[in-house]
Specification:
Elements: H1 3-30, H2 36-55, H3 65-91, H4 94-97, H5 104-116, H6 122-138, H7 149-152, H8 158-182, H9 186-200, H10 202-208, H11 213-218, H12 221-224, H13 226-243, H14 248-255, H15 258-270, H16 279-295
Helix pairs in contact: 1-13, 1-14, 1-15, 2-9, 2-10, 2-13, 3-8, 3-9, 5-6, 5-8, 5-14, 6-14, 6-16, 8-9, 9-13
Length: 296
Amino acid sequence: MTLIESNNWVFLSLLSAFTLATSDAMTKKVLSKGNEYLTAWFRLLFSLPLLIILLMFIPIPKTDGIFFRAFAIALPLEIIAIIFYTKALHLSPLSLTLPFLSLTPVFLILISLFILGERVSLMGGAGILLIAAGGYLLNLHNMKKGFFEPLKNIRQEKGSLCMIIVALIYAFTSSFGKLAIEHSSPLYFGILYYLALSIAFIPIALWRQKGMLRRFIAEGSMKKMIFPGICYSIMVIAHMTAISMTKVAYMISLKRTSLLIGVLYGYFMFGELNIRERFAGASLMFAGFVLIVTAS
């Protein structure tokens, strides 16, 4: 991989992290009890216009049986992940659930090896572990309770267990997604995947949010999801392109810096505290970032 190519995937991974964190922050302003599934669905819907327009300008690649099998496996797993993620937000505090999202790159070390045959280097593996540890530290709001507080609360906090399941599922969907990309193209797969995801999520959103759709629209919540949806579409484009250029474990590790960006949004937009206490986590993530970029 040349230096230019390396800079491209790094930039796109960070762009994916930034647009995801921005979309999440904007979505959080809309999110309230009872409208979680509608909010998730409209974010998907509003990501589609840009993606569909882009589909008109990209070449349609040849696909094969592996593409369709990977697509068919990843799609239902993605839906399950969204459901478990929503449950995690309902059941437990964010400080006890979000740290476990940083486990996805760790799971990917083995899962991407079995699905894609990708091996990470010793230095790259160390970088992945540092980013995971940094992501864990970022969300420990109250260090007085101890470093292992989220782990201790897994039995009591069902939301934490849900988020571990989400992290594991994301490792599989990322790997199968790259497999599908290898047998098509990054943008073609990404556009079709999120189009299918939006359609498949319709009955879930409407079933879980009976009677809330009219209120959601009348209160202006639907309009507020336009910008998060646009950011989400940019995230999809950056994610799919970046993951096609490097090992999936490396790309997802850099994308998990969205946790750090989310902390900054929390401080500036929502007045969340403990920004200084999270410096240790940020430092670990930066060290991991340097190791991964050096190893790739």
